[in-house]
Design a protein that fits this description.
single chain; mainly beta; 2 helices
Length: 139
């Protein structure tokens, strides 16, 4: 009279739930799958001191921050273009080039704070290589 229902094990239920796309997560990361609207990421290098700031305000923008000349900090706004996502290969109008990789708890900055993103630059204005990877923080 009644059809026999299949038995769903907890592992099968969990696998089914994890396989479903999470639209809310994807919608939150509106800038190249990297940042939420209103969020910024700062990737700071040292020796010499400079940083790349990425900001999401509906679209992604960049600012190059240089503290390696004189006694002032220079901030230069610009644009950013992503060639790929996860890892995020980018080039800015400054021109800064490099790759941001998601490295959960895999990057320790100069203050011994553990970060989830690592930036590996390949070019930066006024600087010559070799370039070394450094951490990015979210704000």
């Amino acid at each position: 009279m009644f059809a026999k229902q299949p038995c769903l094990t907890p592992a099968l239920v969990l696998a089914t739930l994890l396989a479903q796309p999470t639209a809310s997560h994807a919608a939150d990361l509106s800038c190249n799958g990297l940042l939420q609207s209103g969020q910024k990421m700062i990737c700071s290098g040292f020796e010499p001191n400079w940083a790349l700031q990425l900001r999401c305000d509906g679209t992604m923008s960049s600012t190059f921050i240089g503290a390696f000349s004189g006694d002032t900090i220079q901030s230069t706004p610009g644009s950013v273009n992503f060639v790929s996502e996860n890892p995020w290969q980018l080039e800015t109008s400054h021109p800064v080039k490099g790759t941001i990789a998601y490295t959960p708890d895999g990057c320790t900055d100069e203050s011994d704070t553990v970060r989830d993103f690592t930036f590996t630059p390949t070019a930066a204005p006024g600087l010559s290589g070799p370039f070394f990877p450094f951490c990015c923080r979210m704000e």
